[in-house]
Amino acid sequence: PVRALAAFALAFASLGAATALADGPILIKFSHVVADGTPKGQGALMFKQKVEERLAGKVKVEVYPNSSLYGDANELEALRNNEVQLLAPSLAKFEQYTKQLQVFDLPFLFDDIEAVNRFQKRSKGRQLLRSMEDQNIVGLAYWHNGMKQLSATRALRTPGDANGLSFRIQSSAVLEAQFGQIGASTQKLPFAEVFKALQSGQVQGAENPWSNIYSQKLHEVQPFISETNHGVLDYMLVSNSRFWYGIPHQIRVELEAIIDEVSYAVNKQAEAANQADRQRIIDSGRSQLITLSNEEREAWRNAMRPVWQQFESVIGSDVIKAAQTVNR
Ligand code: LMR
């Protein structure tokens, strides 16, 4: 019976492969908006490399970084149309498809990236991966970038210092409200336009993790960066549900195993990568780092915190409550 089972498994395996190979290897285009050297950029390349090693001839991966194939304005629609098969948009960019993920944008909700990690691993976080399946988007994993810092043309030490400035934000109503709380205006701009918008003075400030600031050279056009760690910028690795579940079983299982390994590696390395970029920014001497005392940070927290209440019914109080339990 063991031999029969093995033969069956073999036949089954080759059947899957044959389906995939009938029209050549399955092509997975992975598009994203950041540089290769960032946590997400590295994750995409690691995924490609492992697939090439373990699914050679069955699956082919093409990675398009830096908004070179699709950008923020159109990548999710391209995914739903199966013009691209993998993306890892920031959690702030799914507003059109689910409001629940806006929990990740709430300022000062998570104490640090470890708390974010715990939320993503627990049942509510896992559930959110499936929150867009009715719209043909399946969440495969969370990838960390890191905590956001505030950069500006002015030194921002108190919330009042931001008054009257215009900040570039990702397209999220929560982020718009967050800056409204400190008397600042906002412009929703695609990531590919951030450097130019800051350089030209179209906007005077932005919020980003260190890795995005460094790789986009934002510190060269933002003379001050306040280390606020006020919110998180993480990603959801997503695919087109119909495409994903249409992949022959054996191959999909291997792809999911690869994704688990890559996600583990990305999430393990992201914090160190951000700290290294933080140091590179300091060493460049182009931007002044402003560190906040506990009391100063508390003032930012108090100023921004009313946003939670504002979005409680939109996001769901169950989701917010679950997220609040992860701090230590
Ligand atoms: C941003 O638009 O600032 C980020 O979402 C870019 C990214 O993918 O890290």
Percent strand: 15-25%
What order do the SSEs take from the amino end to the carboxyl end, as H and E? HEHEHEHHEEEHEHEHEEHHEHHH
Main β sheet profile: 6 strands, mixed
Mean pLDDT score: 94
The low-confidence runs, each spanning 5 or more residues with pLDDT under 50, are 5-20
Count of DSSP-assigned helices: 13
Structural class label: alpha/beta
The bound ligands are: (2S)-2-hydroxybutanedioic acid
Ends distance: 52 Å
What order do the strands of the largest sheet run in, or round the barrel if closed?
Answer: 7-6-8-5-9-11
Approximate helicity band: 40-55%
Radius of gyration: 21 Å
Shape: globular
Number of strands: 11
Pfam family, one: DctP
Family: Belongs to the bacterial solute-binding protein 7 family.
Protein name: C4-dicarboxylate-binding protein DctP
Signal peptide: 1-22
